[in-house]
Design goal:
- The model has no long low-confidence stretch (mean pLDDT about 90).
- It is built from 4 helices and no strands.
- The chain is elongated, with a radius of gyration of 14 Å.
- The protein is mainly α and about 70 residues long.
- About 75% of the residues lie in helices and about 0% in strands.
Length: about 70
C-alpha cells in the first residue's frame, strides 16, 4: 500500500475532478462501513486508482513533449 498515493487520490484537488469532494468521500465512507478498511481501499482501487493513473500518464506525456516541463 502506497500511503502517499492514497493521500494524493483523496485530496480535494483530485476528488473535485470527479465530482463534489464531500460526496466522493461519503462513498469511501460507505465502502468503509460495509467492508471495513479493506472495503474502502478496494473501492478506491476500483473507482479512483484508474482515473489517477490515467491523469498521471497524461502529466508524464505532457512533461516529455517538446517544451514540456520535466
Amino acid at each position: 500500500m502506497d500511503g502517499e498515493l492514497y493521500t494524493q487520490m483523496t485530496s480535494n484537488q483530485f476528488l473535485s475532478r470527479l465530482g463534489e469532494p464531500s460526496e466522493v468521500e461519503a462513498r469511501i465512507g460507505r465502502a468503509y462501513q460495509s467492508g471495513g478498511l479493506a472495503g474502502a481501499f478496494a473501492w478506491m482501487d476500483e473507482h479512483l486508482l484508474p482515473i489517477y493513473r490515467r491523469q498521471a500518464e497524461q502529466r508524464l506525456k505532457a512533461a516529455r513533449a517538446p517544451g514540456g516541463k520535466m
